[in-house]
Design goal:
Elements (H helix, E strand, L loop, with lengths): L7 H15 L6 H8 L3 H4 L6 H24 L4 H18 L1 H6 L6 H6 L1 H15 L7 H21 L9 H17 L16
Helix pairs in contact: 1-4, 4-5, 4-8, 5-9, 5-10, 8-9, 9-10
Protein name: TetR/AcrR family transcriptional regulator
InterPro entries: Homeodomain-like_sf (IPR009057), HTH-type_TetR-like_transc_reg (IPR050109), HTH_TetR (IPR001647), MT1864/Rv1816-like_C (IPR025996), Tet_transcr_reg_TetR-rel_C_sf (IPR036271)
GO molecular function, one term: transcription cis-regulatory region binding
Length: 200
C-alpha cells in the first residue's frame, strides 16, 4: 500500500530539491526515504529504481528549464531571442545546480519522444535558429554549438573555474555576441554535409 501523502510527483519534486541541495549524484532512494522519514520500500511504489527516479528528475528539470526559456524568448527573434534564451539557460543552471545536472544525463529516445517538455525544447531551439535562415544539417550543428558553449560556460562558472579578474557576466555577454555573429555568418552545408562556398 502507498504511504498516505506520498505521490510520484511529490517524490520526484523532493528528489529535485535534494539534487539542488546536495548534488545530483548524491540523490539516492535511501537519501530520499530519509527525507520523508520512511523506509526505502515505501518509495518503490512510486519509482521503479534509482535510474527511474533520476530520469524523472531530468524530465521535471527539463520542463522547468524550457518553460523559463520560452517565457524569455516570447516575441523576440534574432539576437534578442538568442540573448534571452542564453540568459534564461544560465540563470536556471546557476539557480538550480542539481536540477541542471539532471538535464545533462542521457535519456532513452522513446521517453524523449513521449515528453511534451523535451519536444517543446526542440521546437523552441530549432525555431530560434531557423530565424537565422538555417536548415539541416546546419540546424543540428548549430544546436550542438549552442549547447556545448552554454553548458561548458555554466559548468566552469559554477565550479569557480574562471579565475581572471574580468567580470564573468561581461564575458558571457561577449560569448553570446560572438555566437550571434557565427550564426549570421554560418558556413552553409550541402546535403552531404560539405561546406558550400568555402575557399579552395
Amino acid at each position: 500500500m502507498p504511504r498516505v501523502g506520498l505521490t510520484t510527483d511529490r517524490v520526484v519534486a523532493a528528489a529535485a530539491d535534494l539534487a539542488d541541495e546536495t548534488g545530483f549524484e548524491a540523490v539516492t532512494v535511501s537519501a530520499l526515504a530519509r527525507r520523508f522519514g520512511v523506509r526505502d520500500a515505501s518509495l518503490y511504489t512510486h519509482v521503479r529504481n534509482l535510474q527511474d527516479l533520476r530520469v524523472r528528475v531530468a524530465l521535471l528539470a527539463g520542463g522547468e528549464l524550457i518553460e523559463e526559456i520560452a517565457q524569455a524568448v516570447a516575441g523576440r527573434a534574432g539576437k534578442e531571442a538568442l540573448a534571452a534564451f542564453a540568459g534564461a539557460y544560465r540563470a536556471y543552471a546557476l539557480r538550480h545546480p542539481g536540477r541542471y545536472a539532471a538535464t545533462q544525463i542521457r535519456v532513452d529516445q522513446a521517453l524523449v519522444a513521449d515528453s511534451p517538455a523535451l519536444r517543446r525544447t526542440a521546437e523552441i531551439t530549432y525555431g530560434m535558429l531557423r530565424a537565422y535562415g538555417l536548415t539541416e544539417p546546419d540546424l543540428t550543428d548549430a544546436v550542438r554549438l549552442l549547447r556545448s558553449t552554454f553548458h561548458g560556460y555554466c559548468a566552469l562558472e559554477a565550479s569557480g573555474g574562471f579565475g581572471a579578474p574580468r567580470d564573468v557576466r561581461a564575458s558571457w555577454d561577449k560569448a553570446v555576441d560572438a555566437l550571434h555573429v557565427a550564426l549570421e555568418n554560418w558556413p552553409r552545408a550541402d546535403r552531404d554535409g560539405e561546406c558550400v562556398g568555402a575557399a579552395g
